[in-house]
Structure formats: structure tokens, C-alpha cells
Design goal:
By secondary structure, the chain is mainly alpha-helical. Helices cover about 50% and strands about 10% of the residues. It has a single domain, classed as lambda repressor-like DNA-binding domains (434 Repressor (Amino-terminal Domain)). The chain is built from 5 helices and 2 strands, in the order ααααββα. A two-stranded antiparallel sheet has the order 1-2. Helix 2 packs across helix 3. The longest helix has 13 residues. This is Helix-turn-helix protein. It comes from Nesterenkonia sandarakina. InterPro entries: Lambda_DNA-bd_dom_sf (IPR010982).
Length: about 100
């Protein structure tokens, strides 16, 4: 499957955020963008400059979104990096050992 390298579209960003179950506040912080700017992009189609679009895409990918290009099998889109079983396994591993604290050493 070929990776989608075209500019991020509002529908892809919205779908990626929904798939990764990340709030607009979390993705805005991770991308270094204002919450209103991300909302305007996703829901009103307001354009992002190339740098902001790249930061938003990198943030979405860090949360587990994978963008793929159109091919002879179908159109372009987004999916989760890991399937549901793998996601549950990763979540279980991350919560082992209790909450993480800074070392006092």
C-alpha cells in the first residue's frame, strides 16, 4: 500500500483524529497549533500553511494514524497503525507496573 504524500485534507485529518481517539486539544498541543485553528481546518476547511499542515500530520501519525494513497483497489484514506488486538495489547503493556513517576535518583 502506497503512502499518501499529498497535502493533508480536512476530511482526512478529522477521520484520523476520530480513528486514533484523540481530542482536538491533544492534537493541537502535539502539533503546536491553536485549538481554534485545528477546528477551523477540520470543520470549515480553512487552509493551513504547509508547515502547520506538516506538523498536524506528524502529530496524527505519532498517535497511530497511517495515511495511504489512492490505488487500483480504491481511494485514498487513513487507518490505524495497529489493529484492534494490537492496540489492546499495547494499552495493557503501557499500564503495567502502575503510574509512571519521575525518578528521585
Amino acid at each position: 500500500m502506497k503512502r499518501y504524500l499529498d497535502p493533508l485534507t480536512p476530511d482526512l485529518a478529522r477521520a484520523a483524529r476520530a480513528l486514533t481517539q484523540v481530542s482536538v486539544e491533544e492534537i493541537s498541543e502535539a502539533a503546536g497549533l491553536e485549538v481554534a485553528r485545528v477546528r477551523d481546518f477540520e470543520h470549515r476547511g480553512f487552509a493551513l500553511d504547509p508547515g502547520s499542515s506538516r506538523r498536524l500530520r506528524v502529530a496524527l501519525e505519532a498517535f497511530g494514524a497511517v495515511f495511504f494513497a489512492e490505488d487500483d483497489q480504491g481511494g485514498y484514506g487513513v487507518r490505524r497503525k495497529h489493529n484492534a488486538d494490537r492496540t489492546r495489547q499495547l494499552t495493557r503493556w503501557e499500564s503495567e507496573g502502575g503510574p509512571a513517576y519521575e525518578d528521585d535518583i
